[in-house]
Amino acid sequence: METLSGVKEPEEAADSACPVCKGAGFVHPRLPSGQPDYSRTVPCSCTRQERDKKSRGRLQRYSGLDLELLQKMTFDNFDWKRVNLPPEQRENLKKAYDTTLEFARSPQGWLVLQGDTGCGKTHLAAAIANYRLKEDKPAKFEVVPDFLDHLRFTFSPESTVTYDQLFEEVKNAPLLILDDFGEQSTSPWAEEKLYQVINYRYNARLATVITTRLTTDEMASPIVSRFLDHQFSMIFHITAPDYRTDATANRKKTARGRKERRG
Q: How many domains does one find in the chain?
């Protein structure tokens, strides 16, 4: 097969070309009469897969879920059936699962997940982000202390991102997840930046998820007042203990049982 420039293309390239667009990547749409509209072009369906792949890549980079561990935190592998939990704690964990899954399906308002370290807050928050990405919807996951460090670093000559770019991206994210709220340094600058983000998103009514081990009594009053707006914000307290400590205790209990049976 010969091109317009007179250069012959390999036969296999010609054979693999899309039969619709002949490898051009675009086609002329059809008029109501069924005839091609030669005044316009649209992407051919053969380019959809590549465009979808690029779109998913952009959403993944935007999400902040760059750690493999966070990418693996989904609703499918969240263990709310922890066998050694008291029934009321297991029921609480199941309700946390149901609440976050419902939020992931239709993010509206604010969801604040409270609880001790290791109770499952971060897993459920990351699961929301991963669910939205699977639906090809944007979600931004930020660990609060890391976000503030990145914000400070934008003032460095080595930074490839400006302060305004990062700050506006976080402020205006369609769905923002702030993990480990309250673990940041308590400098006036850090408190001011967080208040600006939270106050802006509160006034703009932007969907937000926050995880924290702080109680509302331990939070700064200008911020906690936004969390306590029950018409817009829901606070869910997870009562389960640290999963890692819980799992270790369960393994020791199982080992003791085996030893007793052997004895």
A: 2
